[in-house]
Amino acid sequence: MSNEMTEEEKKAFSEKVRSISFAASAMPSRSLAAEAKREEKQMTKDMGAYKRLRDDNIQPPSVRGSAELESHAETKMEVEAGTVVRNKRTREATEKLLAD
Q1: In a domain, 6, yes or no
Q2: pTM over 0.85
Q3: Is residue 47 domain-resident?
Q4: Domain carrying residue 73
Q5: DSSP string, 35-82
């Protein structure tokens, strides 16, 4: 029994190989599927953070970004404004203005 292919078999095989294609979802690092998976993971974190903040009677401006605000904001004002103030003096001055 010979393992050699005939010319006709070689042509048929090469034609089949040329027609093979792969779905983008089969390569998650090269497709929108990877991005969608990251976004879903982030949204899950944001929804949990949003719920915890709401349970503490703090209203974030949006579900998106709530995890970031929860972990970095130091005041209720920062969470509700949706912006973390990095400068301590600026934060204190803003809080003082809002308190008046």
Answers
A1: no
A2: no
A3: yes
A4: 31-99
A5: HHHHHHHHHHHHHHHHHHHHHTT---S-STTHHHHHHH--SHHHHHHT
